[in-house]
């Protein structure tokens, strides 16, 4: 498998990378982001060609088309919060426009499969900015007409040491889906599609929290 990872420096992105880089079935991983990711055995992985890091501002993602070429799958763990972005407008630009622009670039580069970490409750018609943005982003990705789109909709994420206050509070009442679970589940889903495209079901696949946990063996 040859994969491109977007958002590799984030909590989920790091777990996706760890899952991919530890698998002998993965030939090459390209990260695309505004800064490179630090991983164990980095020099060796880069020397072997298994890990390639491409640095670009997301606003210029369309110019990074070559970095997507030859990939079997794009795994997108890119995103932000309204608080981090600073305004609703900035949030939508980052969380939605950049992701859809990346999907359009991947499609032009000929990538057949796009995977995106959305959220439980995502809906383009939601009254909540976050869920509305995720729903509209899903639709923007689907509109590119990939052979396969996998939309993961986890509930609360357990982001380990990177958990935000509100996430830590919520985890008093319920267990979050671990980022390592997300990483394993995405690799499993991508491998399953590569192995047997014919029986992989609908072109657009929604993966709920329970299925993510089952696939990620949590
Ligand atoms: N927290 C939850 O409970 C929860 C639940 C369901 C779904 N989700 C969704 O899951 C996805 C992954 O979450 P996560 O916790 O792994 O996210 P995260 O740790 O905040 O990582 C976000 C990634 O996006 C990149 N990014 C953000 N803004 C950027 C910008 N302006 N330009 C370039 N890169 C930018 C970050 O790069 P830098 O490192 O360079 O900033 C990082 O790689 C998100 O879409 C999130 O909304 C979260």
From TrEMBL:
Annotated Gene Ontology cellular components are: cytoplasm
According to its UniProt entry, this protein's organism is Capsaspora owczarzaki (strain ATCC 30864)
Coiled-coil boundaries = none
Q: Which domain of life is it from?
A: Eukaryota
Against Pfam families, the record matches this protein to: NAD_binding_10 (PF13460)
Q: Which GO biological process annotations does it have? A: import into nucleus
Q: Which InterPro entries match?
A: NAD(P)-bd_dom, NAD(P)-bd_dom_sf
State what protein this is by name: NAD(P)-binding domain-containing protein
All copies of the NAD(P)-binding domain together span 7-164
């Amino acid at each position: 498998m040859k994969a491109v990872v977007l958002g590799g420096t984030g909590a989920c992105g790091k777990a996706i990378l760890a899952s991919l880089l530890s698998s002998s079935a993965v030939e090459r991983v390209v990260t695309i982001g505004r800064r490179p990711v630090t991983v164990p055995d980095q020099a060796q992985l880069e020397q072997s060609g298994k890990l390639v890091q491409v640095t670009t501002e997301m606003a210029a993602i369309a110019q990074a088309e070559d970095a997507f070429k030859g990939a079997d799958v794009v795994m997108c763990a890119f995103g932000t919060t309204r608080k981090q972005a600073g305004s609703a407008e900035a949030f939508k630009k980052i969380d939605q426009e950049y992701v859809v622009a990346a999907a359009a670039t991947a499609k032009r580069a000929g990538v057949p499969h796009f995977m995106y970490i959305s959220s439980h409750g995502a809906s383009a018609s939601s009254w909540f900015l976050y869920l509305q943005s995720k729903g509209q982003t899903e639709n923007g990705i689907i509109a590119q007409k990939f052979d396969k789109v996998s939309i993961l909709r986890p509930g609360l994420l357990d982001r380990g040491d990177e958990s935000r206050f509100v996430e830590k509070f919520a985890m008093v009442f319920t267990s979050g889906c671990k980022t390592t679970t997300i990483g394993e589940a995405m690799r499993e889903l991508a491998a399953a599609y590569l192995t047997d495209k014919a029986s992989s079901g609908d072109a657009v696949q929604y993966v709920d929290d329970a299925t993510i946990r089952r696939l990620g063996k949590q």
